[in-house]
Structure formats: C-alpha cells, structure tokens
Write a structure and sequence with these properties.
- The protein is an alpha/beta fold.
- The chain has a 7-stranded parallel beta sheet with strand order 8-9-7-6-12-13-14, sandwiched between helices. Strands 2-1-3-4-5 form a 5-stranded parallel beta sheet, sandwiched between helices.
- Strand 1, helix 1 and strand 2 form a beta-alpha-beta unit.
- Helix 6 packs across helix 11.
- 46% of the residues are buried.
Length: 373
C-alpha cells in the first residue's frame, strides 16, 4: 500500500562500510519524509531486521560479506517482498539486482567533496521516495536464459548463433506477408520497474518484428550493459543507440544514458538521432522526446507503448502520437511496479488500450498482423 504524503518512510540501511552507513544515516535522517529505523552490516543482519522492523524501503549495497546482495534478494523476495533501492557502482550487479526484485538503483560514488555528496544524497532521497510507492509482489526470480546473468557470450560466439528460447505459450504468430516497404515503428518508454517490464514485452517477439526504439531511464554505461543483456535474451538483436543507427526489422535500439533518442527519416527509411541535451520532463533520455519525434516522423505508421514508472514522462507525447494516428497502449495498474507514467497517459486520453504487462507482447503481434498487407 503506497504511503500517504503525511506518513514518514521507514527506512533500513544495509551496507558493510561503517563510514557509508553513518553518512547515509546522517544525511537521510535530515529529510522530513524519511525515518531511519535501523542499519544492517550484512545480508544475514538485514534479513533479521527486515522481518522484525518491517521497513517501508531498504537501501542496500550489492557487494557484502557472507552473502552478496543478489543472492540475498533471491532469498528475501519470495518470503518478505519489500521495495529495495540498490546502491552500487557496478552496472552488471545493478542489473542482476533489478532482475532479482530490486525496484530502483543509485550509482554509488566516491564520497569526495560536498557537491558530490549532495548530488548523490539528492538522487538517493528521490529514489527512496519513488520506491515507497512501488508495488513489490512475492515472486521468484527469472532464470537468466542463454547465458549466465551479466556474463558475456563465449569468445567467437555471437548471440545470434545461440539457440533461440522457446516461444511463449499463447504468443500469437507473426504473419509473414512478404517484405513490407514501410514497416511500422514500435516505440516504448519506461522508468521505475521498466528493465524487467521491457524484457517481459520484447523477449519473445520474433526476429522478423519491425524495428523497436526504447527509452528506459538509466545513466550512461548502465544503458549499454542493459542493451547487451537484452541482446543475449531476445530473438531480436539489441544495441545501445549510436547516432545514425538504422531502425530495421529484427533490431531493438535502446536510448543511451544522457543522450536523447529521436526518430528521423530519409530516403532509405527510418534512423535514430542520439544527441546530448538538457533534461526534458526531468530526464535524459526522455520518453517525451522519443514519442514526440515518432509522432512527427512516423505518424499513423507507429505503435506507442508506455510502461511502469514514476512521474509523467512520455504521457503528453503519447497523446500526440495517438492524435497523429498511432496505436497506443499503456500498462495497467495491477501489473505496474509504479503506476505513474501510464496513469497520467491514460487519464489525459493518450492510451487507446490498457493491458496487463503479460498481454503487451502478444498485442504487438496482433497489431502487426492487423495491418493491411
């Protein structure tokens, strides 16, 4: 149950560094919305205190003695689901933690200088507030298909050479009507809870699916690691955006951290512009920037999808996409980790159809099959 504006967020801090614990306690206790109810030095200590103190949110490093944070989350979530904000400097471990059930993350800096500390604490405070509104369900973690989570493919073996994962039960078959001279664009935007939501949507789409462009709110380095992870799992190929990349059948392009992702078109078809710029709707990359470009460039030849996330990024320009003739879909409340971005889009009329997360991948296939050959 999300907290009311007047309720304090009861926070447990888990970190094996006494210096870091004291720094977090001192800074976070000064926030009027946060009450630090305890600290833990390792995973075993954290398990006891989570069950006894029942915190609203937990912050946790992933590199801890006795039991690392990833294995701890795998043990914790099935028996005591709680919103966890991971604090780590290691992108691969962060992605493992999100896959294991964490809802948010903050990059852990070297706390050198007051400005660095201030920026870090501001971001962490914001993520704790977001996490306090997250819905975490009892679930076992998703096994990492094709390759160990976070591991690169063996030398000389491309992801395309690996055996494909079996089709998902109930996934419609994509009808092959021959080469489409003007294939549609599929644009997806997400934030909190989005890394796993995006995977759920795209992992079973066939390699013949038209090009997909995605913005997921993540910082630099993390977006590239996330794209690599999806590339090992999905039937489609996945890469982090580079300026000028062509949007092609069988390819997914993930917006790079601190670079806005825009769709463009020339005589040869669609391509992307990946360019730095100021934050829009509080983010760079911004879903609003992507959706506006898709509305302007592709118009009715597009499908827009907005997934779980705090705030309103993407909502206004999903509406613009719909007004331009695109087909728009929003994730429903029950399946969202945070029903923020999809809720705003739905409430202003930007969402044509609202669906549970598990039905959005099949809906993409149904949309493609419904188009005239």
């Amino acid at each position: 149950m999300p907290l009311t504006i007047n309720q304090k967020i009861r926070l447990l801090i888990v970190d094996d560094s006494i210096f870091f614990r004291k720094t977090l306690v001192s800074a976070l206790s000064a926030d009027p919305r946060i009450e630090v109810i305890g600290t833990a030095v390792d995973a075993m200590d954290a398990m006891d205190k989570i069950q006894n103190l029942n915190p609203d949110v937990v912050t946790m490093d992933v590199e801890m003695p006795k039991l690392n944070g990833i294995d701890f989350l795998k043990k914790l979530m099935p028996i005591h689901p709680v919103p966890v904000v991971v604090v780590s400097s290691l992108p691969i471990r962060v992605l493992d933690a999100l896959s294991a059930g964490a809802v948010e993350f903050v990059r852990k800096p070297e706390l050198k200088g007051p400005e660095i500390v201030k920026r870090f604490m501001t971001e962490l405070t914001m993520k704790i507030r977001i996490a306090s509104n997250a819905k975490v369900s009892k679930r076992f973690t998703r096994p990492a298909p094709l390759a160990q989570a976070g591991a690169a493919p063996a030398a000389g073996v491309s992801s395309a050479a690996m055996p494909p994962s079996p089709p998902a039960p109930g996934m419609p078959v994509l009808i092959n009507r021959g080469l489409d001279k003007n294939p549609p664009i599929i644009a997806i935007g997400a934030s909190t809870g989005g890394t796993e939501a995006i995977l759920e949507v795209v992992q079973n789409l066939p390699a013949t699916t038209p090009g997909i462009v995605i913005v997921q709110h993540m910082p630099p380095v993390f977006t590239n690691m996330y794209a690599q992870r999806l590339d090992r799992i999905c039937k489609m190929s996945v890469k982090e955006a580079a300026h000028g990349d062509r949007v092609e059948r069988g390819k997914i392009i993930i917006g790079a951290g601190e670079y806005h992702l825009r769709l463009a078109k020339d005589a040869s078809g669609y391509y992307v512009r990946s360019e730095p710029g100021p934050k829009v709707s509080g983010h760079c990359p911004s879903v609003d920037v992507l959706f506006e470009s898709v509305a302007n460039v592709a118009g009715a030849n597009a499908m827009g999808i907005i997934l779980t996330g705090m705030g309103a990024d993407g909502a206004n320009n999903l509406l613009k996409m719909r007004k331009a003739g695109a087909y728009t879909v929003g994730q429903d409340k029950d399946s969202c980790v945070v029903y923020g971005m999809p809720a705003v889009a739905y409430n202003i009329g930007g969402v044509q159809k609202q669906l549970p997360l598990s039905e959005i991948g099949p809906e993409i296939i149904r949309y493609l099959n419904s188009r005239k050959s």
